[in-house]
Every structure is written in C-alpha cells, then in structure tokens.
Amino acid sequence: xxxxxxxxxxxxxxxxxxxxxxxxxxxTEIIYNSQSSELQGIATDxxxxxxxxxxxxxxxxxxxxxxxKMNLLKTQLDNVLSTNYNYKVSLFQKNTLINSIxxxxxxxxxxxVAIIKKPVFVKTATSAEExxxxxxxCK
Length: 139
Hints:
Layout: H1 8-55, E1 64-66, H2 70-80, E2 86-93, E3 96-102, E4 113-123, E5 128-138
Parallel strand pairs: 1-4
Antiparallel strand pairs: 2-3, 2-5, 4-5
Helix pairs in contact: 1-2
C-alpha cells in the first residue's frame, strides 16, 4: 500500500514492546519501594529498641533517656542488626548534640537511608530537658 508508514505487523510489535517495557518499569518500582519500606520498618523498630530497651532510665517517666547509656545501646544494636545494615544514632538535648554512636561503617550520603526522629527527655548529670533521638539506618 502506498502512503502507509508502518505495517500492521510493525504496529503490533511496537505495542508488545511498549507493554513489556511498562511491566519492567513497574516491577523495578515495586522492588525499589519494598526496599525503602523495609529500611523504614527497620529504622522504626530500631528506634523503639533504643528508647524502650536500652536508654530508658526510669520506666515511670516516659521517654526519659539517660545519655550515659549510649555505649550500652551500641552493644545491643550491634547484636540486633545483621551485618547488612549500618546505623548512626544521635542524641540531642534541645539542639545540642550530646552523644552519637554508629556502626563501624556508618551511613554515607550515597546510600539509601531511613531516618527516624523521636522526641525524648534527655537526662544528663546536671539536668533533664527535652531533646530528640535521631536514628539513621542504611544498607
């Protein structure tokens, strides 16, 4: 036929290629989203472990963190997390960094990182004031 740019076979092939490409892109997005939600879930669990198991100073006072227990937390977190994950935990009183711990490698800017920020009360040798605990978990 004159004036026909594509044959019916070519158009059907383009449709099949487009569908295959769309399915591939969709699968890639599903994998990426599951990995990021996995990291977020680990960071959330990690923050609950940090506050409830290792750092609480007095069970009657919710979220009162003893800043001197950060090294104990590092030991517990190293035992809980597998070697596939790195972490960094920073404890702030108001906007001042009080203490920070991390796994051997820590988290770099090039890695995918899940960050959780939990409001806490920070107990130091001299005071107990509002603060926050920042937990970063990366693969």
